[in-house]
Design goal:
This protein is of the alpha+beta class and 287 residues long. Helices cover 23% and strands 23% of the residues. The strands form 3 sheets. A 7-stranded antiparallel β-sheet has the order 1-10-7-12-4-3-2. A 3-stranded antiparallel β-sheet has the order 9-8-11, with no helix packed on it.
Length: 287
Amino acid sequence: MKSFDLDNLNQILETDGFVDLTGLIDNQQIEAINNSIELAMNQPHANGQRGYVKQGCQRYLADTLSYGKEIIDVYTNNTLIDLAEKYSNDKVHLSNYRIYSTYPSDDFKMWWHLDNKIDTYDFDNKCFIQKVVPEDKGLIFLMYLSDVEDGGVQLVKGSHKWSRDYDCEGFDHMEEDFKNEIVTFNDRPKGTFVAYDYATIHRAKPYNGGQVRTSMFGQLSPSRMPAGEPILLNVRDLNHLTKKQKQVLNFGNEPTTLNWPIGTLEEFLPPVKEEVSFIKKLRRLFQ
Ligand SMILES: O=C(O)CCC(=O)C(=O)O
Ligand SMILES: [Fe+2]
């Protein structure tokens, strides 16, 4: 494994708002992850059928952390956790996590945004509520599980230093002002690993053609922030977890929101055309 100098990385984070940690996870581990998720990324999730949940042009692997120890090991990688703890000046835990595939789309587009916020599920209105918290300081990492030509993550260099001065979560209206500071992680191979201060303005670059992008995402938040999403593990993987891994995986702590996204049943319905001909057939049968 490549060696990383934590003090130097911490300094780059303070200055730019992000660091390139490519090489942290080797190809063998990436292949092992891809093998363990392949089937599930190609079928909708239902009880008894492990798969994905759909949201817009993306497929999210349900119960991401239950697929294999090699996935847990990325989320709890020592260098990553040491860096997150140094940067946030606190112990950290995994507050949000997901493996997802993004499909090129004309209809869906991610806006420029921040993630230094608390997500809570509102059970009465069945929606997630977000509240920006300026003093929240931690890291998000994104690792590509596929080669990425277009549709990569984009970061606004240095924006973590000024984004907290604005009372908003979305920054599309300011794109003209920061367009020269945008760094785009396109044309990068699988294994590309970026960690950023989640107060850095960012988005996935919109794209409407080319390859599907599969990524692994984790948000490491300081202990002063809420626990976050429920973490469901496979008992197969519990035996050899270290104390540090248990801390990062929130052992013993009550989740403070639900896993995002919830998804809809539409994946299970036949496409509209087939549905119409199915209904016509039924009518003919009963006439
Ligand atoms: O997929 C990406 O490039 C960015 C994802 C992101 O910003 C998010 O999920 O909050
Ligand atoms: Fe984000």
